[in-house]
Amino acid sequence: MKPDLKRIEAALQHMDVHTVEQSPSAEPWTTEPNLSLSFYSTNYEISAEGAIAEPFSMPFGTHSPATPALNLPVNAALALSLLQEMQTTVGSWQIILQTLIQQIQTIYDEGPMIDGWLETQENSDGYRLCGLSEAGQPWFRDCPAEQVPDVSLAIARYQRFQHILHRKHQLESRLAHLTETLIELHGQAINSEP
User: Fold this and answer.
1) Contact predicate 129/113, CB 8 Å
2) In whole angstroms, what is the distance from residue 150 CA to residue 148 CA?
3) Across-strand partners of 68?
4) I want to staple 30 with a disulfide (CB 3.0 to 4.6 A). Which of 8, 17, 25, 26 is the partner?
5) CA–CA distance from 94 to each of 71, 98, 118, 132 (Å)?
6) Rounded to whole angstroms, how far apart are CA atoms 35 and 22?
7) Which long-range contacts (CB under 8 A, 24 or more apart) does 63-69 make?
8) Per-residue model confidence as pLDDT tens digits over 82-128
9) What b/e string do you get for 20-43 counting C-beta neighbours within 10 Å, with b at 16 or more?
């Protein structure tokens, strides 16, 4: 055996390997905070004479690896929180949708609606009702002065109706998209193994 190896072996025999300070109840793999791992956190460089020099830190130090399992309860709580928030949001959308349907019914009950606008006729004090056909062609119709108030109300009623109907369609589209997404996620959750 080489002389250097003999000196190292002799020095190791003289080292006190009982430098691990451990509580009597702790197991070797415990993560209790009162466990000191000075034997693992430092290493002693052996000199040529077998004496112990200044300690230096080991590359792995005293860092303990993170345990991914500890994050699972947090992820589960986040999933439940998101589901509850989505339930609240969908519930509010349903209330808004019911309100919009009631508003549409109220507008129908108020009277007729006209998709058009009023214009004053040139060289005349009268009015004419204007609009566009389904093909996009303009049309005109004389509107007597005594009918102007009722026609104006019918035009305003139609504009309110279109605004509410647009909101209703937007909300229904969002609900339909969310429903498709939830159905897909539900299928993945049911079919996946725990």
Assistant:
1) no
2) 6
3) none
4) 26
5) 35, 6, 37, 34
6) 5
7) 64/31
8) 889 999 999 999 999 999 999 999 999 999 999 999 999 877 778 99
9) eeeeeeeeeeeeeeeeeeeeeeee
Please state, for a pLDDT cut of 90, what percent of the chain lies above it. Answer: 45
Alpha carbon distance 97, 161 (integer Å): 14
Position 126 scores a pLDDT of 85
Task: For residue 180, give both structure tokens.
Answer: 């498709």
Length of the chain equals 194
pTM, two decimals, is 0.56
Tokens in use for 64? 């303990």
Whether 61 and 48 have beta carbons less than 8 Å apart is answered as: no
DSSP 54-83: EEEE-TTTTPPPP-GGGGHHHHHHHHHHHH
